[in-house]
Amino acid sequence: MATIFSKIISGEIPSYKVAEDDRFYAFLDINPLVKGHTLVVPKHEVDYIFDLSDEELGTMQVFAKNVAAAIKEVFPCKKVGEAVLGLEVPHAHIHLVPINKESDMIFSNPKLKLCDEEFKQIAGMINEAWRSNKK
Question: CA 67 to CA 51: how far, in whole Å?
Fold first, then answer.
């Protein structure tokens, strides 16, 4: 059975896409800690991130690095934090979160409630920055 992330990648479930290539897909978390909170996933289903091949894990990190640069451009912050949790969806994924202090990455913090228009605007801005920074 396909994971929710596979359904998002295939377009069965809508998402706020910020970046995509032939192997990875990045989209806004719908329960964000802060504006710009993004998930990066491989397009094929792998439950545990460390079950990815070394090459794919490295390539995923480079893809995430480029998405993080776009997030930082749109949402000026000290850093873009990265977290690998992976218990809520059995599909490997990386959380990218713009942070100014470590407590910005506490996942039990209250989540933002954004409207569809805000999500679309944020995704569009990050995507534009990502496209302009692609090498």
Answer: 22
Give the model confidence (pLDDT) of 64-119 as tens digits: 999 999 999 999 999 999 999 877 888 999 999 999 999 999 999 999 999 999 99
Written in H, E and C, the secondary structure of 81-109 is EEECCCCCCCCCCEEEEEECCHHHHCCCC
Question: Rounded to an integer, what distance in angstroms lies between the CA atom of residue 96 and that of residue 53?
Answer: 21
- Distance in angstroms (rounded) separating the CA atoms of residues 97 and 32: 9
DSSP the chain: ---HHHHHHHTSS---EEEE-SSEEEEE-SS-SSTT-EEEEESS--SSGGGS-HHHHHHHHHHHHHHHHHHHHHS--SEEEEE---SSSSS--EEEEEESSGGGG-TTSPPP---HHHHHHHHHHHHHHHHHH--
Q: Would you please indicate which residues are annotated as catalytic (active-site) residues?
A: 93
